[in-house]
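Case study: Amidohydrolase family protein.
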Amino acid sequence: MADNVRRDAAEASSGTAEATDATDAIDAIDAIDATDATDVADVTNATGAAFNHIFVAGIPGRRFDIRIADGRFTSIAESASPPDRPGEDLWISPGVIDLHTHLAWTDFHHADQAKRSPGEIEALQVQAFEATLRAGVTTARDAGGLSASTARRIREAYGQPLKVAASGESLGGADAGQGTGHLERRVKEIADGGASWIKIFATGGLGSPPDKVLEPLFSREELFSIVRAAHANHRRVLVHAWGGAALDWAIEAGADSVEHGIYMTGDQAGRLAQAGISFVPTAAIYRIAAEPDGALALDGPFRERAARAADAHPAAIRHARREGVRIGFGTDFATPALHGRNLEELDVLIDCGLTREEAWRSATEHGADILGYGDRLGRIEAGYTADAILFNADPYRARNAEELRGSIVSVLTGEL
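Here is what the predicted structure looks like once written out:
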């Protein structure tokens, strides 16, 4: 399949490609066995391509002729005539943007990762990039653990086209109580290391006892100083906050993105909306972590905390939706057992009250806007980066992530 698409792309870039009729999926792109989980979708660099009579996901009943050159959509026009040979249709959607993943982590417990050799860790990191991309994620914001240099090495050494915004090392409890000068220096070190985001652990998480999870890890003054320093270094800020005073302070300080928000109140959601701060709930991970025989197979206390979080989370997401908060798609996936299951987040967002259209928007347009790429990524529009997913069925009609993933034919990656 890849050879066919790359041949079409090469011809298109030289001005010789003939347009593919998207009603003939065999001519467009060779079908894959959707039951083969190890090869869910082909990945193709969208140097150039042409599609006729293709459906754009979310626009029912209308076909389009689409051209791609130099990794960008160059023209998108409604088809002037019906297809010559109705057959197997194709749908195109923007590539998914996962705003909260951990591509450098190989194990849930960091002590287990420390037992691995550097070569084994790198191999697992490369696999994480590949599995994420094959699931339809074309851009990811790594929310802690992945350095910009490691992301660059994987991209260059392995030809891995997944676009990654790294946040490097996170600021957490070990940095608290050392003064604002220390925090400002740490922010500059992380920014100078190539991180495009600064990550703050403002509360506990699954590792914290329920009665301690909302206790702030930083004082109000410290959290404000981190946000100020990050913005002074032209970096955006994402804040891990399950709720409570730390979430209040993140809003007041002007953070750019709040993560998880398990116990976020309606009042806090309203203030998030007023401040223009985005919310990335990472909803699926808590349900997965609560499963006794699931992919993570966590100990009882962790599962119990995850179950509590999963029970409380839908209310926070409904608050955010009602108040008009910009919601972003993020998975918080951090182990080989989870990378590649990213689309399950759509199911849980819908289960928590988003419409299917809203869930898809969180994974595409909103993701691009949150990253600051809203003028060039996350949409099927002329001039935008040709990051896209091709499906052999309407993705908006998929019953669940498994069916959606099984309908992926190819993942296209363009140039940002």
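For the exam, be able to explain this: The longest helix spans residues 300-323.
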